[in-house]
Write a structure and sequence with these properties.
The structure holds two protein chains of two kinds. By secondary structure, chain A is an all-beta fold. Chain A is 0% helix and 57% strand. In chain A, the strands form two sheets. In chain A, strands 2, 4, 5, 9, 10 and 11 form a six-stranded mixed sheet that branches. Chain A is globular and about 40 Å long. Chain A starts with a strand and ends with a strand. By secondary structure, chain B is mainly beta. Chain B is built from no helices and eleven strands. In chain B, the strands form two sheets. In chain B, strands 2, 4, 5, 6, 9, 10 and 11 form a seven-stranded mixed sheet that branches. In chain B, strands 1-3-8-7 form a four-stranded antiparallel sheet, with no helix packed on it. In chain B, a hairpin with a 7-residue loop joins β9 and β10. The radius of gyration of chain B is 13 Å and the shape is globular. Classes of the chains: A mainly beta, B mainly beta. At the A-B interface, β4, β5 and β9 of A face β4, β5, β9 and β10 of B.
Chain lengths: 109, 113
């Protein structure tokens, strides 16, 4: 089945810093989503981005489907950005949503 | 527009007890899914449904059962709870099986003691 890798596994930032999270996947996909899981466990949709670039406030994402990766950019990070960021893709062979292992982000005041 | 609603939010079960996790969506999505998330890990698919009356196993189905009698509801049943089922359970729905945005519920945190 499709494999999803995320890097880095852990990231510690000072408030105000910028960061880039990466998601690599092993096969072509129909869908890719980025989620933020906050410290209370809630899973929040950030982007639905099978290809192209999207922006939402301080966050933006780019997926290059032909090269099988996606990037999530966080600018001017805030303590509320802390949590785990997951990338999830669906494969072409009926595998609904395979999640990556996540990147744990800690933003320090 | 509630989206995907899960109940309960928290539950503690004793070994061998049974329970049903409820999931309802109001977006008229055909596709619904149950995932579990073990501590420090990503989500794994337990069961999914492509429409009322149709369900299929995902990656980790053992110890669980599902049913789908209506488009809106997709309950997950644990028959004989085991400590290995201690996890956070997420229900999700989407309009299409492949290629569509998936919407997740807020999760049910289950502890089996």
């Amino acid at each position: 089945g499709i494999q999803v890798e995320q890097s880095p596994p852990d990231l510690i930032l000072q408030e105000g810093a910028n960061s880039t999270l990466r998601c690599n996947f092993s096969d072509s996909v129909n869908n890719l989503q980025w989620f933020h899981q906050n410290p209370w466990g809630q899973l929040i949709n950030l982007f639905y981005i099978p290809s192209g670039t999207k922006q939402n406030g301080r966050l933006s994402a780019t997926t290059v489907a032909t090269e099988r990766y996606s990037l999530l950019y966080i600018s001017s990070s805030q303590t509320t950005d802390s949590g785990v960021y997951f990338c999830a893709v669906d494969g072409n062979y009926g595998q609904n949503f395979v999640f990556g292992p996540g990147t744990r982000l800690s933003v320090l005041p | 527009n509630a989206g995907v609603t899960q109940t309960p939010k928290f539950r503690i079960l004793k070994i061998g007890q049974s329970m049903t996790l409820q999931c309802t969506q109001d977006m008229n999505h055909n596709y619904m899914y149950w995932y579990r998330q073990d501590p420090g890990m990503g989500l794994k698919l337990i069961y999914y449904s492509v429409g009322a009356g149709i369900t299929d196993k995902g990656e980790v189905p053992n110890g669980y059962n599902v049913s789908r009698s209506t488009t809106e509801d997709f309950p997950l049943r644990l028959e004989l709870a085991a400590p290995s089922q201690t996890s956070v359970y997420f229900c999700a729905s989407s309009y299409l099986f492949l290629g569509a945005e998936a919407f997740f519920g807020q999760g049910t945190r289950l502890t089996v003691v």
